[in-house]
Design a protein that fits this description.
This protein is an alpha/beta fold. The protein has two domains: 66 residues, Hypothetical PUA domain-like, domain 1 (Ribosomal Protein L25, Chain P, Beta Barrel); 162 residues, SPOUT methyltransferase, trefoil knot domain (Alpha/beta knot). The protein is built from six helices and twelve strands.
């Protein structure tokens, strides 16, 4: 039987009792209907994972007792930052969920010329929190103990002008002459840039190439932005990551 996994961003000290967040308590008590004595797995998001027990329920508050450490090899040798053009609603949610399952290390949501979504500062903060919660849930489901960081949404031109160029930088472009799968080698640190619905415009592609992004394609068909992310990450993990 697979144990429920809970993200617990705290120091996981064996034998200690820790109170869970309100959302975690609600999920365990009202959704899963767990009772005292139930075994769990908790992870801190930084790579530490432990067995645990639901030891006390006081009203709506749940406490867990931290057990032995679990050594789980669930992280890819590739450190991929997904620089994703922000797409609408569930498309973006789905992209980040699947990217997390596929071993992404970080996500930088970028606003582009053709982005349908427009965000002010307040909306950006709200979206960032929402996307981070999706990533955490994906880690709980997929067995990851390291939670990828969702960075604050930023305009693509600002991102390109402020970043260092010490990673392999790949730009998905349907008309590129080189297929992603045909690359001879990639480094262990990769920045992967994918446009939103409608793709990147010519000036953004030019600026990305000036920032050392190499254009690669995924084959003869034009994929939706959320499909492109899943396929590209799968190709990278199959060629150089932990799918091979």
């Amino acid at each position: 039987m697979r144990l429920t996994r809970i993200h617990l961003p705290a120091s996981l000290i064996i034998g200690s009792e820790i109170a869970l967040s309100a959302s975690a308590c609600n999920h365990l008590l009202r959704v899963l209907r767990l009772r005292e004595g139930t075994g769990l797995v908790v992870f801190d998001g930084a790579g530490n994972e432990h067995s645990a027990e639901l030891c006390r329920i006081v009203g709506h508050q749940v406490y867990v007792r931290i057990g032995t450490k679990i050594n789980r090899a669930s992280e890819s040798p590739l450190h991929i930052t997904l620089v994703q053009g922000i797409s609408r609603g569930e498309r973006m949610d789905w992209t980040l969920q699947k990217a997390t399952e596929l071993g992404i290390s970080a996500i930088v949501p970028v606003l582009t010329t053709r982005s349908v979504v427009k965000l002010d500062e307040k909306q950006s903060a709200k979206k960032q929190d929402h996307w981070q919660s999706i990533v955490i849930s994906a880690c709980e489901q997929s067995g990851r103990s390291v939670v990828p960081k969702v960075h604050t949404p930023i305009h693509l031109t600002e991102y390109l002008s402020n970043q260092s160029h010490d990673h392999d930088r790949l730009l998905l472009e349907p008309n590129a002459n080189t297929a992603l799968a045909d690359l001879a080698q990639v480094s262990t640190h990769i920045d992967l840039l994918i446009g939103p619905e409608g793709g990147l415009d010519d000036s953004e592609i030019k600026q990305a190439k000036q920032a050392n992004f190499k254009s690669v394609s995924l084959g003869p068909r034009v994929l939706r932005t959320e499909t492109a992310a899943v396929v590209a990450l799968s190709v990278l993990q199959a060629g150089w990551g932990d799918f091979k």
